[in-house]
Amino acid sequence: MHLTIQIVNYNSRKNLRDCLGSVQKNFPDYKNLQIIIINNDKERLEDIQRDFGVELIEKNENIGFGRAQNLGLRAAKGEFVFFLNPDTELFPLTIEKILEVFSIDEKVGIVGPIHLKEKNILDESCFGFLRTPLSIIGSKILQKKQSLPTNIFETDWVSGGAMMARKELLLEIGGFDENYFMYFEDVDLCLRAKEKGWKIMVHPEAKIFHKSGQSFSSYHKKKRHYYRSQIYYVKKNFGRGWAWLVKILRLPFYIRNVYFSKQ
Question: N or C, which end of the chain has less CB nearby within 10 Å?
Answer without folding.
Answer: C
